[in-house]
Amino acid sequence: MEMSIIKKIIIKKGVCRLKFVVTDTLVDHPKEAAVVGDFNNWDPRRGKMQKSKTGYFEKTIELPLGRDYQFRYLINKCHWENDWQADAYIPTPYGEDDNMILSCTLPQTKMIKNHRNKIRN
Fold first, then answer.
1. How far apart are CA 1 and CA 107, in angstroms?
2. What is the 8-class DSSP label of residue 114?
3. Tell me, what's the pLDDT at 28?
4. How far, in Å, CA of 43 to CA of 47, rounded?
């Protein structure tokens, strides 16, 4: 299964816009997919992805800047998948596959420049 994450930092809004994409290439093709994590209390109903006309499952969310978020994909309500484009991985407390980490922080140089601009205004 192919997955991708498109990340865009929107400084003016103070958010990280994330577009999650899961392609429809699993054996038996998935009927549904969800992106779940600590940002939606690991609730598949809140992370349900929409199937696009191209056959991909997609979901776009905005998360506050300044922290990292754990997540995984849940396919057909029973199969967990990792996305190899995640920023990092950490072990779960359940001894299963790692949770993936998305970092929604600004690089240090951008944070310093942004802070200086706020001071001047």
1. 30
2. H
3. 60
4. 6
Listed residue (69, 3, 77, 81) closest to 37, CA to CA: 69
Q: CA-CA distance, 34 to 42, in Å (whole number)?
A: 10
Residue keyed to tokens 């990340």: 7
How far apart CA 69 and CA 92 sit, in angstroms, is: 13
- Percent of the residues in the chain that have a pLDDT greater than 90, as a whole number: 48
119 or 70, greater pLDDT:
70
Nearest CA to 91 among 113, 70, 118?
Answer: 70
User: How high is the pLDDT of residue 1?
Assistant: 60
Residues in the chain: 121
* Domain 3-120 homologous superfamily, CATH: Immunoglobulins (2.60.40.10)
* Cα separation, 120 vs 21, whole angstroms: 40
Per-residue model confidence as pLDDT tens digits over 60-112: 999 999 999 999 999 999 988 888 888 888 887 777 667 788 888 876 544 44
Q: What is the DSSP letter of 106?
A: -
